[in-house]
Amino acid sequence: MEYRQLGGSGLKVPVLSFGTATFGGVGDFFKAWGSTDVLEAKRLVDICLESGVNFFDTANVYSSGRSEEVLGAAIAGRRSEVLVSTKATFPMGSGPNDLGSSRHALVRACEASLRRLGTDYIDVYYMHGFDALTPVEETLSALDDLTRSGKIRYIGCSNFSGWHLMKSLSVSERYGWSRYVAHQVYYSLASREFEWELMPLALDQKVGTVVWSALAGGALSGKMRRGQPLPSGSRLAQADFLAGARSDKLYDTIDVLDEIAAQTGKTVSQIALRWVLQRPSVVSIVVGARNEEQLKQNLGAVGWALDAGQMAKLDAASEVRPSYPYWHQRTFAALNPPPVPFPSKQG
User: Fold this and answer.
1) Domains of the chain with bracketed CATH
2) What is the pLDDT of residues 309-332, one digit of tens each?
3) Buried b (16+ CB within 10 A) or exposed e, 193-203
4) Which of 51, 90, 127, 182 could form a disulfide with 156 if both were Cys (CB 3.0 to 4.6 A apart)?
5) Tell me: the pLDDT tens digits for 15-54?
6) Can you tell me the distance from the alpha carbon of 241 to that of 245, in angstroms, rounded to the nearest whole number?
7) Any idea which residues carry the catalytic annotation?
């Protein structure tokens, strides 16, 4: 297993981390993702550790806290062997203070996550989304206090826009507080908007990119084909936004994935994951699995590489014209060089 440094921190994490949104299965939404119980979770953790994947990701909202409980039970007795990340900010109740990133909400959320996980510290604590109603100074001050108390080792954010992240980094620098070392984002061959602003920011500010849904909610898993209906009851059918537009562009990308799969002997999903791992700023991909077979297939994305020609073909097939001001900046590449070369029009 390859390990990379998490942003500007000294922490090294595996290039694949295991996401536990499939643990618990509480509520219709998360039940469609999976209902892994403690026994199966322990087996999946075993497989991960045997393969060098020691980083496990969850969130308090996953199955209303049940995912954290199942993960805590699965890693009981081996906490020192693993890294654990969880998240706060989204609603955990109907009360006016049961959501957000205020000091009040974060202290309560952190304590509750620690109890459910059965641990006294969290390795990486993410703000699951930006709270525009709470001053950034209040959020970061609370996170710094939690870090200094030893309850959190590192802080990260998720689903922030560029100005959200840059403002937060500036405030942390001004006051000498803990700064975000990771940004968990949606990025895949089916949706490359991350590259327009967030990728250059990550590289410039040394914020490690941790990718969620690198298979676009299943659109790049090999189960989706042009002219064929979606698998009934699948996560892909449930969450349309994850796959991006159902367009010829998406199917063109899948066609190239099929072509490279035939060349390499790898699966479509392994190639889609490998492409993300070879992009700038990416430190780790959060992969999920409902069972051992899915997990082992995802683990097959490491230990090999796509060559320059294969990367260029995938780049060209999946590239879309960026929105303003990014298309304008690209016309002056001498002043705004891209973090990766623009795809060749010839493919």
Assistant:
1) 3-216+273-303 (3.20.20.100)
2) 999 999 999 998 899 999 999 899
3) bbbbbbbbbbe
4) 182
5) 999 999 999 988 888 878 888 899 999 999 999 999 999 9
6) 8
7) 62
